[in-house]
């Protein structure tokens, strides 16, 4: 099972535990396995803990207890060892608005350690796919909200990650930007990238995800395919399922 997985969470918890007894009985202890090549969605109401969970899963936030491990080329790695294989697209914009699109991507590409020739090709390729090539030399502060979302995604996938984490990648974007983002994510997944993301767009998630986790108050309250969960709880769709369980 381990070699079929991309990410494994074992007993992770974020918060204060006063004793081992509290740990053993806490409802907030999270265990889950994300499979290789999977498109895995995390959903829940505002404040449910979606951002905290995905931040722990990608190694940005250290859990109070438990561990998150990654399977890369058959090896079991911790977050630090797997860093070069992981991509992360946060909900907040993670770029320098006073720099151009090209300058931002060059800066982050060098942080990844990409060779100059490879980096330049990757920059032009991503900007073209995301419909941003024509603004390569314009400052990002002049971009629309949707263009900034696409820019955020480009930075997060510069290193062609094996595992990609995204926190609300399509929030507040126009239809054109949403289409460009989802289309590129589908392409990445077809090429072998395992994708984990949070979103408020439930219909989008129904069409995109292989499996989903529903969380509320830091606890996983549902885990499986949309079909299995809706059948189990007699819900017509993801929205009805989420309302019924939370």
From TrEMBL:
Matching SMART domains, A to Z?
AAA (SM00382)
Annotated ranges, domain ABC transporter: 7-242
**One MF term in the entry's GO annotations:** ATP binding
Keyword Nucleotide-binding carried by entry: yes
- Write down the PROSITE patterns for this protein, in alphabetical order: ABC_TRANSPORTER_1, ABC_TRANSPORTER_2
Under Pfam families, the record lists: ABC_tran (PF00005)
Does the UniProt entry include the keyword Nucleotide-binding?
A: yes
- List keywords of the entry alphabetically: ATP-binding, Nucleotide-binding
Q: What is this protein called?
A: ABC transporter, ATP-binding protein SagG family protein
Native species of this protein? Ancylostoma ceylanicum
């Amino acid at each position: 099972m381990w070699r079929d997985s991309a990410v494994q969470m074992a007993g992770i918890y974020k918060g204060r535990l006063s004793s081992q007894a509290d740990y053993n009985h806490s409802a907030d202890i999270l265990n889950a396995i994300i499979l290789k090549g999977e498109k895995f969605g995390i959903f829940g109401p505002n404040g449910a803990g979606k951002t905290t969970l995905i931040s722990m899963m990608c190694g940005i936030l250290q859990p109070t207890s438990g561990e998150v491990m990654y399977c890369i080329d058959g090896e079991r790695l911790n977050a630090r060892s797997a860093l070069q294989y992981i991509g992360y697209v946060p909900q907040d914009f993670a770029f320098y608005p006073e720099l151009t699109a090209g300058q931002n991507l060059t800066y982050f590409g060098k942080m990844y350690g990409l060779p100059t020739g490879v980096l330049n090709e990757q920059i032009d390729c991503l900007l073209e796919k995301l419909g941003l090539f024509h603004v390569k030399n314009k400052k990002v502060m002049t971009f629309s909200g949707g263009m900034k979302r696409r820019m955020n995604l480009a930075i997060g996938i510069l290193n062609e990650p094996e595992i990609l984490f995204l926190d609300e990648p399509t929030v507040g974007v126009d239809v054109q930007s949403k289409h460009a983002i989802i289309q590129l994510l589908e392409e990445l997944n077809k090429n072998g990238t395992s994708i984990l993301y949070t979103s408020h767009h439930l219909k989008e998630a129904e069409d995109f995800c292989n499996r989903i986790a529903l969380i509320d108050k830091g606890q996983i309250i549902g885990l499986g395919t949309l079909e299995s969960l809706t059948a189990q709880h007699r819900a017509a769709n993801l929205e009805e399922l989420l309302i019924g369980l939370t």
